[in-house]
Amino acid sequence: MKIGKQNSPFQSICTSNPDTIVVRGHDLVEDLVGSISFTEHVWLLITGQLPTVPQRRILDATLVSIAEHGMVPSVQVSRMTLAAAPEALQGAVAAGLLGCGSVILGASEDAGRLFQEILEEQKSTSAAMAAATEVVLRRYRAEKRAIPGYGHPLHKGRDPRAEKLVALGESTGTAGVYAEIARTVETVLPDVIGKALVMNVSGAIPCVLLDAGYPLLALKGVPLLARTASLVAHLLEEQQRSIGFIMSRGAAGVIEYDGPAPDGFVANEN
Amino acid sequence: MKIGKQNSPFQSICTSNPDTIVVRGHDLVEDLVGSISFTEHVWLLITGQLPTVPQRRILDATLVSIAEHGMVPSVQVSRMTLAAAPEALQGAVAAGLLGCGSVILGASEDAGRLFQEILEEQKSTSAAMAAATEVVLRRYRAEKRAIPGYGHPLHKGRDPRAEKLVALGESTGTAGVYAEIARTVETVLPDVIGKALVMNVSGAIPCVLLDAGYPLLALKGVPLLARTASLVAHLLEEQQRSIGFIMSRGAAGVIEYDGPAPDGFVANEN
Amino acid sequence: MKIGKQNSPFQSICTSNPDTIVVRGHDLVEDLVGSISFTEHVWLLITGQLPTVPQRRILDATLVSIAEHGMVPSVQVSRMTLAAAPEALQGAVAAGLLGCGSVILGASEDAGRLFQEILEEQKSTSAAMAAATEVVLRRYRAEKRAIPGYGHPLHKGRDPRAEKLVALGESTGTAGVYAEIARTVETVLPDVIGKALVMNVSGAIPCVLLDAGYPLLALKGVPLLARTASLVAHLLEEQQRSIGFIMSRGAAGVIEYDGPAPDGFVANEN
Amino acid sequence: MKIGKQNSPFQSICTSNPDTIVVRGHDLVEDLVGSISFTEHVWLLITGQLPTVPQRRILDATLVSIAEHGMVPSVQVSRMTLAAAPEALQGAVAAGLLGCGSVILGASEDAGRLFQEILEEQKSTSAAMAAATEVVLRRYRAEKRAIPGYGHPLHKGRDPRAEKLVALGESTGTAGVYAEIARTVETVLPDVIGKALVMNVSGAIPCVLLDAGYPLLALKGVPLLARTASLVAHLLEEQQRSIGFIMSRGAAGVIEYDGPAPDGFVANEN
């Protein structure tokens, strides 16, 4: 099989010999284990460089902000899967992560791409940021795409998590062009879509991470990593106090069958 | 459907109202985001309590120690999956985690269960630790089960990661009964299996985590969380410099077909 | 890395050259596509031989019998996952299959192993089948293992799917030693466990498949393949009339939070 | 949580009471098990109607044509996952399916969408089919999108599987407007892209299925279902003659590390 052009058979993340494991150029045992935090290691793995203190604080804050939000679909999926297949905790985690898609948790990545498009529009046209922002937002509207990272079904007036992250970007001195873009989107939005929408946590996460130098193409890794921690916690509880099938009955109980049935059939599954 | 007895319809991890998200009793935005590290949050999510500094350092060290080990099967699986399905990064992460099973990365959990069995044997019989250890190890042998957490295919003489973690358990003052058990297993093993095997990283991880108060039933969460970080790093590289199909050809190239074929058929797929 | 002993680098399922794809010794295009049914192809792929008509009918019947059973956990998981990640239908199918574990749908495989153990007990001791069955059932009881394939939460008196499959085994002439074992288990059970339990569909599936010559180690493939068809049907409906988040709210609505909260916090997520 | 508008809490696939399971309006036990083939059941589940003989033959042929193609990435992923996590066959199947994405196996669905766009273009403009086809193909080119379903890396001159399926569409009398569109694309392509490309199996599958009345939004279900059968066969072989880690070593062996390393480090992992 020959699929796609791939002619660079290299990786640059880890190598080893029988004595030493080298991760991103560092001796894992001598220099990293016991010396750096997991968050620093995550930054190192992803970017190839150890983070500065502000970079580390931003990554910590974004991971903490979205790790856990109660009985969301991915948690339900994961706990129901463990109840059905207790022999494979990794399967329950995987099932939960599979729901970290474009509708849920994907908004961070989408908002990051929006900010990047605005930045590129601004750079290529040398227009003012507000003008570049309006061009991109109107393009989204013309293509009937939602504006990711703004508005929230629950926290109508403001999103406290977003405010906290943005404030941290400022206090750590990492805030930069993406913070400017994110604010500009909030300002321009009412003109473009006819109503005001405040930045939510999915907008704030790429805003502060991109300003801190975290790579756009790994943005989705942040909710995935954060959510893995949440799933492990829920799966520990599920092993001790299982609710997987209780939730399944709750879910089934709100759905009715409206298809055909044989004459005389009376549904009463219970 | 009624499957299993589940009559406790509760969870105790997170609740919220439109203003506040409460995680393990703490106001997420006010008290946690920007204030604690991700590792502290992981410990809080899983145990319900914020960690002490030694607990946090132990969890950090174990996560750092096993996050990355080069082109292992789970990384290959994940990168091959992204090359085939680039629209779903979460699918590539999930595929990689599905290989964190009993043979690979499951040894940490298995070693933790071994230590726990030895502890329970010792407690229930009031025997000396060495005697209790020998009883349990001989039971494993009788059941033809491998002794998890000892020996390593690569690092024959010693496992530097294990030594580093055990030393950290001692220097942080968390080392306790599990460290004693782990050492005792190493001492007793030659008598039981006829050769010496040193503790490896999969033995050291449960040893130091259990001593620090991390729950046994969440042990597998440590390699799963650590490996998620590694997968995100590899998937970023895969997007920039894809090797998924190169590895697939490499894998196919070492396997031959030895089944039947029609008369005159000459295989030469390439 | 060297994990496990693997020194036979062969596969015997498929080979090809630029003109011909050979599957289990047959020219795929010339001999199979358009000529055989999918069920015949499944049997060929798994066993290496085209099935007889009775074998094909048994495999068809078992697949049909367990493909669909309403809003079971795996279907809920799959539809919730698609609602959250509509970009990856394969992810939603995978999430659904991850719940085909030991508690749900795994019973077919477990029952097959039970029957096999009884057969081996009978062969190795030359005892009567009833005696061999009792030995194995008592061993299960001593190990506190459930007897897989018997009893059903819903269909208390009898399981019509099981009866239908067993009758088909007889009418196709495939019924043999496994049918005898399955009946014997039903007869011996009351003595061993103190109450009567009838064979359910998870017992009938391995009974008829093993008698037909289907391999024990691929038994789980039957529910997995059948359930994939069900998931595809549900995911088509989910795209047209989504209920994923409705089910999620239904599931969340039956679970209460019983953990700590800050003073004055009033939960009212909605 | 309120995500998306979902206000139709119904499903129409299956209902049951303690005596009867109803699938798409039919009594499962009385009318389907033992009476219809699995392929007929798949069609029933997906479309709500039992298939005609030509419909069933088309679905059988497409499933048989793409179930198996040797050591492709999804098979490698699945076998490597089982070697690492033998406790969860469902996890290995899920991992394999996660690679059935847009690059591999997704082309069938993409080609179906292409054909549908051409049909809608033709209907809305009342243009000749060739003109409508050219409009859509030129739009794809302007958007720098590949033309799915045409060309093949291996079978350069012709794709025998595609020819066989198209011929079956004609011989069963199901061939219709999609066959016309598929042929027209082949005719128009040289003018639009500057070279001739023949229809491949990913083009032929939606061509014959859509003509037979199979729904566009379930097209991806065909490769997913077919591939599940292949994975089960490979996983049976993997249990008996494991090659998972052999393939992993083969894959690792073709990738080199080109990142930094500490002074004096000599890589020689093996």
TrEMBL record, chains A, B, C, D:
Query: What is the main EC category here?
Result: transferase
Q: Which domain of life is it from?
A: Bacteria
- Catalytic activity, EC: 2.3.3.16
Keyword line: Lyase, Transferase
Q: Which InterPro entries match?
A: Citrate_synth-like_lrg_a-sub, Citrate_synth-like_sm_a-sub, Citrate_synthase, Citrate_synthase_sf
A GO BP annotation = carbohydrate metabolic process
Pathway(s) this gene product operates in, as recorded in its UniProt entry: Carbohydrate metabolism; tricarboxylic acid cycle; isocitrate from oxaloacetate: step 1/2
Q: Which GO terms describe its molecular function?
A: citrate synthase activity; lyase activity
User: What Pfam families would the database entry show?
Assistant: Citrate_synt
Q: Can you quote a single GO CC term?
A: cytosol
* Similarity-based family: Belongs to the citrate synthase family.
The protein depicted here goes by the name citrate synthase (unknown stereospecificity)
Q: What is the lineage of its organism?
A: Bacteria, Pseudomonadati, Pseudomonadota, Alphaproteobacteria, Hyphomicrobiales
